[in-house]
Amino acid sequence: MAIPNVSSSSSPSSSHQWNHDVFLSFRGEDTRNTFTGHLYNALIIKGINTLRDDVDLQKGDEISLALLEAIEQSKISIIIFSKNYATSTWCLDELVKILECQKSIGQMVQPIFYDVDPSNVRKQLGEVMDMHGKKFKDDIQRVLRWKVALKEAANLSGWHLNNGHESDFIQRIVEEISSILMKRTFLDVAKNPVGLDSHIKAMSELLSVGNDDVRMVGIHGIGGIGKTTIAKAVYNYFAHQFQSCSFLADVRETTNQSSLVQLQETLLFETLGMNTNLKVGSVDRGITIIKERLCHKKVLLVLDDVNEVEQLDKLARDKNWFGPGSRIIITTRDQRVLDYHGQVERKYEVQELSDANALQLLSWNVFKKSYPEEGYEELTDRVVQYAKGLPLVLVVLAPLLCGGSKLVWESIIHKLQSSLNKKIYEILKISFDALEDNEKAIFLDIACFFKGENKDDVTKFLEASNFHAVHGIQVLIERSLVNVGNKLQMHDVIQLMGRNIVHQESPNEPGKRSRLWSHDDILRVLMENKVRAL
């Protein structure tokens, strides 16, 4: 049984409150104690949080505010069309609300035609609406809303039961609903998301989800800049518009620890459904299965933290692997991966947070509100200036600062000027470790000596020292470790990471380090007569 397609002009928010998995809309006198009762019990047994409007909630002709809110808070609405469904004003008000939620928050709508044909539902429009029109002649707009909603819902693709095996039918519905819910589970974006709206808007323009072409869009930038957070937010925002979705997190780390086969199997499991238990066996076989099984599906796929072209080749080598309308989002620290792949035509470089957003992010994580506590304004501003718009720094430092006195803040800020927090250091160093030896040497030279210097002058100097500086600096730019205008620039935290690497070569004996930039260290070495050459 194919999952019915549902389209929507709007998108849900990851912050929308979903209190129920499924809402059942049905005509009580037709199916409450038969089909609907059996379906409800089967959904509950499966662990699916299901709400039905019990008879004691129905009072008069007006639908209750509590029930309207319950519909809004349900991920999926199942409409059970039966013989007398359209005679109930209560059911029709539910139907209007359900279709509004489909458009406004991306709620999925699944009709079931229980011993009625969709054409019969459409036929009810005339006679039933005439009856309602007479009863509600003073509220004709309400009747018109019912008429439009009934016509729209009758045209939705759904499930049909006509004198079939009810138990088997219910079981198939429960399995599909379970599969749909798995795909529509929102990703946890961030504890305190700040400034994501502008990123979602920019990505929306690059993705153009409404078009039928297949697009690959890259998100690149320095480590800790928020690429994964943005990808998660975009995934949550658009997932409801696709038949199948998959978010493959930590591709780099997963590849290092296991193999690409595991990633291929995860991709197939998430896009083909819960009952899929494909054992790929080999990477080449996995490629064939992905192409054959997904080429007709509209897929949203996120490949997070990719660091090698080979990973893309085995997971999403070509656009024709996926069906019309598919979108593949790739996050990486290395822009070259996107360029070399050859299929990524649109790229989004993540920029540092503005000071205002950085202050808000730090405040939410430290003070649990959008602004600093009184008396901490100057201290928070110093932390924001230190972070230079890098979210990673703010989020990692927040637990150390939270609840601390001003003296504690002063101590931490002072320490940050000369050393890097271990967690920040380890995350940023991933980019350094991926460099070739020549590129590492150039990076360390820039971090220790050449930040802010003229690019051409530095290039000539390094080339004269037998470094392949032109290529090396370009690699550093593409990996977001260096920024270049006329001068070589580097994020302060990245520079501190580079200098820490050199310091770790010999923490206690500066003379054994490969580079010296501190006047105190240089003087100490000279005084101890440990300089081999100048």
TrEMBL record:
Superkingdom to which the source organism belongs: Eukaryota
Residues annotated as transmembrane: none
GO biological process: defense response; signal transduction
Domain TIR: 18-181
MF-aspect GO terms: ADP binding
SMART domains named in the record: TIR
Native species: Carya illinoinensis (Pecan)
Entry keywords, A to Z: NAD, Repeat
InterPro entries (alphabetical): Disease_R_plants, NB-ARC, TIR_dom, WHD_ROQ1-like
Protein name per Swiss-Prot or TrEMBL: TIR domain-containing protein
